[in-house]
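[job 4471] stage=fold_predict status=RUNNING
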Amino acid sequence: MEYDFDTMIDRRGTNSLKYDFADQWGMPEDVLPMWVADMDFPAAPEILERLKEVLQHGIFGYSEGKEEYFRAVAGWYGQRFGWEVKEEWLVKTPGVVFAIAMAVRSLTKEQDAVLIQQPVYYPFSGVIKDNNRVLVNNALKLTDGRYEIDFEDFEEKIVKEHVKLFILCSPHNPVGRVWKEWELRKMGDICVKHGVWIVSDEIHSDFVRPGYKHLVFASLSPDYADCTVTCTAPSKTFNLAGLQTSNIFIANPDIRRRFEHAMKQVGYQEINTMGLAACQAAYEKGGPWLEALKEYLEGNLSLVREYLAEHLPKIHLIEPEGTYLAWLDFRELGLTEEVRQDLIIKKARLWLDSGDMFGKDGEGFERINLACPRSVVKRALVQLEKAVSEL
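[job 4471] inference complete, writing structure tokens
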């Protein structure tokens, strides 16, 4: 089947966080939004057909996934990642960030230390601080245009700060690393050695570029599985974030009991009816659409790479190995944070995610969402070039 990723769908007036709240965020009304990580593509036709069936039925009562739902989810991870999961491991939540919060609340207590690797997805730090835990940062090191883990600092921080929980971002958002097996094992062995629980956010696992392979962290060792909460969702893969359905796998029954108790404490029970239907349809029938999408996104990335090299040589692409997000290094322009934001927002009329949102290690960088029609990517680059040329 041919899929159309070039047509721009007008999302304004649909309560879109990305498009309809510029004024509330202090942005110009004509700003081009390429910040929050949802896609400007309609969901796969197979998903839309299933949702139409649910709509036509017309009743949206309390719902729960049955065996067919688990088979669809398990089949996806078994076939694509070689990860065999058991039905009792599955806990459904309205989102991965919610699940991370439940893990933090159930596996640590106030003032316990939680380790993350900045620059990293900014809700990680929010969840830690908002739950009165202590944030510990094992900063990633940028070496020759590629981010790497400082393993010596990783273990030293765990020991010195008495870290109880590590939140792993795999693939990493925003720097785009797809961790190699030896990197995952080295982190895993250190955590097992020191009794550290792990939350592995693997929501971007389906967006791995050619030549790279995503490995489910918990699949690498029974010891890792025994101390890990693995967070997955169809939301990034199939643009279903608004349907609030995530699949969390917890092999250790004690961790699972504590996690589910935390969910009961906040009153969460049944999953979103439409989300259940969409997730099952996605994992049963969405594969061809996803493969076509990934090929299209490669074209968008190539455009960015070539355009920067030719027209904006002082802005550097950190070559991504995964995700549909690009991490851009603006530091060679020599601008302060305030001047760079003025350049991007007021002059280029772009709404990106400023790097400092991801921690102080992200200062001087910007994250841009490339999951949109190629014409939008081209427009953004042209607007940015014009603004830079007027510096």
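[job 4471] summary: The radius of gyration is 21 Å.
[job 4471] exit 0
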